[in-house]
Structure formats: structure tokens, C-alpha cells
Amino acid sequence: MEILQKLELPLIGGAFLAAASSSLLYDYGRVLGCSGAIHSLLSGTYQSNKLALVLGLTFGGSGIRIGLPFLEKSLSRSFFDTSVLLHANHWQVLSILGLSGLLVGAGSKIGSGCTSGHMLCGMARGSKRSWAATMVFFPVAILTHRIIKPFLYALLPQSHSINHVAFESKLAPLAIFLLGSPYLLYHLLKLTASSKRFEFLRTALLGATFASGLALSGMTRPSVVLGFFDFFLPFWDPSLLGVALAGLGTNILVYLAVVKPKVIKWNRLKEEISKADDLTIEGLRQSFLVHAPNSCVQSEWQLPELSNTTIDRKLILGSALFGMGWGLAGICPGPGLVSLGAYPLSLGIWSWIAGFLVAGKLASVESRLRM
């Protein structure tokens, strides 16, 4: 019962994460990858949908911060570790956060993904690369945390300081409703306007929904993430199980039941169109569009496994670096953007963001030089 009590909000948060990522996949044929969105902006190849996702995550954090007193009181839970965001002024703490950002930035660029793209979305689709990446970065993160914890105990928030209380406030449903309002707006636009006209706004709303899911699941708190890495210890925090059960679990069901059949049919028709003569090609094209993503904006399934299934040294190395950075400070790209939106003047989160951006840019330049 105690674990179920601790998982109440994380399960709701995981459902929000699944709603956002599955909707982006079904409606637009795209993977919700937080690190990929940031890296694409750094590379100079402007893609409006990537920018929309980054802005949605960031301003989603800003919206949570505006309503923070009400939300935290109604749900009896803290959404951010203010000791890191507001009081991280010591050079040692800033150095740790900067190093974490460097490792996560380099690792997610080299390994082509992070917790959202690989673990939450890729594993749900059965992507071999995503399974391999997650099987590397997750144990590496746990090992990194367990090794360095004795040395950083006094510098970073600890899991045993977290107080999980069942939310009994009558205002709790209203708080959940407010956090889920971006997703309701997304579907309102879907029902009342063409997908092409509001693609940018709808993608941003999914980013904001994802931000709410990260906050509810505890992933915007490094102490919760690091606490999850404390397996078999008395103060282990099970919150991230909510992401696995409600987030990954729901994504698996949606993909198998709804998306995968369309992708298989779409792929087969794509091959038939390439071989068809002029008399039959028009009919095939109509059927092809029926099995494309639900939105008329995008007629392609932009799934990495359709073009790359190779598990190489680059993927393993990048995933290991990502795991080291994640295990060092408990911050990954999505929660980093949400925290930046909530606390834009935080020296601590800017140290992490700076490290991420520098490493991502260097990895991008190095990759281009090799080509």
C-alpha cells in the first residue's frame, strides 16, 4: 500500500507522457525525442516542429511555476528541487551540473536519443537500437550514482529527504485538470481546425503536456531520479515505476494496437507504388495516404528504425556517456527544459544547459568533419 501511495501521481504523470508521445506519433508520425529536438536546433537545420516541442516543454515549465503554490498544496507534492535550482551557487555544485550536462549532451548526440526518444518511445515500438541504448544507459546511470554518491552526498539533494504524502485535497482533481489542460486544447484544435494550420501550436501543446507529465512523475526532481537509482536501500524511491508502467506500458499498447498495423501496411504500399505502372499507381497512392499518419500534414512515418537498425559502437558509447551524465545529477533533456522554463534565472540549471549545448555542438561539428 505504501508503494501504491507513492505511485499515485507518477502513474498519472506517466499517462500524461504517453498521451503526448503517442499523439505525436499517431497524428504526425514523429517520435517525441527531447534531446533530438534540441540538437536539431543547434545543428542549424531549422525544423519548426522541433522548435515547437522545445518551446512547449520550456513554457510548460513556466506555466507550472506560475501555478506552483496551488499545485503543490493541492497535490501535497513538490515538483522541483529548489536546493538545486535556487541555491546552487557553490562552484562544486555548478561544476557537477555542468559536467552532467556535458555528458548528457554528448551522449544523446552520439547515441541519437535520450530517455524520451529511446526509453519511452523507442522501446514501445520494439526498436532494437532503443532497447540496446536503454540497456546500456540505465545500468550505467545506476552504477555512476552508486559510485559517486558517497563523495557528493552533501552537494546534491538526497532521496531520503523526499516526503510522499497521499493527496487528499478536494482541489486535487482541479490541479490535475489544469496540468492536463494543454492536452485538452490540443484535441480541441484537432476537432475544430485543420492540422496544417495549427501544426506548430499543437506540437507545442503536446510539449506542454509532456512537461506536466514529467513534473507529476517526479522526473523534474533530481532527488527523485537519483532516489530511484538507490535500489535495495531503505530509502529507495519507486516513483519512476510510474513512467514505466503508465508511460511505456500505454505507449506499447497504442503502438501495437493502432500504429504498427498502419506502419506495416504503409511500408508495403510504399514498395508497391515504387514498382507500379501508371494505371494502378493512383489507387495505390490513395490507400497509401489512408495508412499514413492520421494528420494530413505528414504522409511519412518518421521512425528511426525504418532507416537504421544498426547497433554499433557509436550507439553504445553515446548511451554510456548519457548514462554517466544522468546518474551524476539526475537530469536529462526534457526535465532540463522544464526546469529552465520554471526557473529561468537559476544558475544551477543554466550550468547544466550550458554543458549540454556545448557538448551537443562539439559532437555535431565532429560528426560533420567525419563525413
TrEMBL record:
<keyword id="KW-0812">Transmembrane</keyword>
<dbReference type="InterPro" id="IPR046513">
    <property type="entry name" value="DUF6691"/>
</dbReference>
<feature type="transmembrane region" description="Helical">
    <location>
        <begin position="91"/>
        <end position="110"/>
    </location>
</feature>
<dbReference type="InterPro" id="IPR007272">
    <property type="entry name" value="Sulf_transp_TsuA/YedE"/>
</dbReference>
<feature type="transmembrane region" description="Helical">
    <location>
        <begin position="201"/>
        <end position="219"/>
    </location>
</feature>
<dbReference type="Pfam" id="PF20398">
    <property type="entry name" value="DUF6691"/>
</dbReference>
<protein>
    <recommendedName>
        <fullName>Sulphur transport domain-containing protein</fullName>
    </recommendedName>
</protein>
<feature type="transmembrane region" description="Helical">
    <location>
        <begin position="171"/>
        <end position="189"/>
    </location>
</feature>
<dbReference type="GO" id="GO:0005886">
    <property type="term" value="C:plasma membrane"/>
</dbReference>
<keyword id="KW-0472">Membrane</keyword>
<feature type="transmembrane region" description="Helical">
    <location>
        <begin position="131"/>
        <end position="148"/>
    </location>
</feature>
<keyword id="KW-1133">Transmembrane helix</keyword>
<keyword id="KW-0997">Cell inner membrane</keyword>
<feature type="transmembrane region" description="Helical">
    <location>
        <begin position="342"/>
        <end position="363"/>
    </location>
</feature>
<keyword id="KW-0813">Transport</keyword>
<feature type="transmembrane region" description="Helical">
    <location>
        <begin position="51"/>
        <end position="71"/>
    </location>
</feature>
<feature type="transmembrane region" description="Helical">
    <location>
        <begin position="315"/>
        <end position="336"/>
    </location>
</feature>
<keyword id="KW-1003">Cell membrane</keyword>
<feature type="transmembrane region" description="Helical">
    <location>
        <begin position="239"/>
        <end position="258"/>
    </location>
</feature>
